[in-house]
Known about the structure:
Blueprint: E1 5-14, E2 17-26, E3 30-35, H1 42-49, E4 57-62, E5 65-66, H2 71-78, E6 81-84, H3 96-106, H4 111-124, H5 140-152, E7 158-162, H6 170-184, E8 189-194, E9 206-211, E10 214-219, H7 221-225, H8 228-233
Parallel strand pairs: 3-8, 3-9, 6-7, 7-8
Antiparallel strand pairs: 1-2, 1-4, 4-5, 9-10
Helix pairs in contact: 3-4, 3-5, 4-5
Amino acid sequence: MTTLIEARELSVSLGGRTILGPLSGELGAGVLLVAGPAQCGKTTLLKALCALVRPSAGSVTVDGVDLASSPEAAQKARSLLGMVFQNDALFDSLDATANVALPLLRRGVARPEALERAREALAQVGLAGHEQALPERLSGGMRKRLGLARAIVARPRYLLADDPFAGLDPGTVARMRDLLVGMWGGKGGLIMALADPAPMWEVCTEALILDGGKVAARGEPRQVRGEARVASLFGEAAA
Length: 239
């Protein structure tokens, strides 16, 4: 079965002003880099794709299911999605293992299995040994990795990551990038929203550049990166 997320004339408005769109196209195959300057619509797009923001016009479908068709349909579609939030959105009263296990418990996974899978996810992101740590005891970079572990533990078909490398050192960025691309690049889909696209240019299969809520460029990464408008957005020299 072909798996994809699709936007159809998707627009989001706030206070009577359009902050995203209109945007159309398939978004859920391979590794999609979404990049652009601050306030360009990256976070809004990801939230619209997982029904955390309601479109003012157009629609989003996940594997053919319109997120707005019914609450039950939206819930089913959202079960295919994992989201890494820009702010870690962790529960400070729960330790690392409990934070990561929570999505599984909410889906009815037995507690022993949920905890075991949570520990495996923590190890994948380099947090083995910190299973009982409270989020407030972790550094900013470690909290970011904890958020990554929580997003991947349910093994969603699609992973939407909003600036997942913020606060991480270059070595950790490379490890996390390779982990995520390895897990989702060849099946389902990975959508990475970044202010700085540098870590993803060489590994993404498609690039979507936003500027002022509009599509500035989209296509094969090498071609997109070489466009003068794109290069100017990121302070690079056009090819």
